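Quick one:
INPUT:
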């Protein structure tokens, strides 16, 4: 046998069992994505509109609280419409739709409102006001508030739910 001859070498072939592993990979969602998505979604953009007007002077947590009132109302279809758009546009419910606003929300108010609306509707932020379905600013004392159960004050808004 010279150096170029090949020897047959027995080869053992093994088949390994591959066990699939389920790994949940959550995409990284940026504020730019939230902003883009919310502007394209009718429900999200309607909530953002309400937050931009109703909670523009609030902190982010204050805007989130107002958004959760809207969401809470959609969960009670016997009393309220079952969509965000229906709740927001229901007659005599949101002051920004009843009277002309002297000042318009600034671009940063809109941006915060879109992002907060996305976060609320996608469960990214917790509800700071429980089952509250009413609110008003500290500047007013509506008659209906006496019949409601007070829940919390967040920023310049008081939040209530039915007793």
């Amino acid at each position: 046998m010279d150096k170029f001859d090949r020897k047959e070498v027995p080869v053992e072939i093994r088949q390994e069992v591959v066990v699939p592993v389920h790994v949940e990979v959550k995409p990284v969602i940026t504020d730019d994505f939230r902003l883009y998505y919310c502007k394209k979604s009718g429900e999200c953009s309607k909530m953002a509109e309400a937050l931009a007007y109703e909670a523009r002077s609030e902190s982010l947590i204050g805007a989130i609280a107002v958004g959760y009132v809207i969401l809470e109302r959609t969960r009670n279809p016997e009393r309220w419409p079952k969509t965000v758009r229906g709740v927001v546009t229901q007659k005599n419910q949101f002051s920004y739709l009843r009277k002309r606003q002297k000042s318009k929300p600034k671009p940063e108010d809109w941006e915060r409102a879109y992002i907060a609306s996305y976060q609320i509707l996608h469960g990214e932020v917790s509800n700071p006001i429980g089952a509250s379905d009413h609110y008003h600013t500290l500047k007013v004392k509506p008659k209906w508030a006496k019949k409601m159960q007070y829940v919390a004050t967040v920023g310049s808004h008081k939040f209530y739910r039915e007793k």
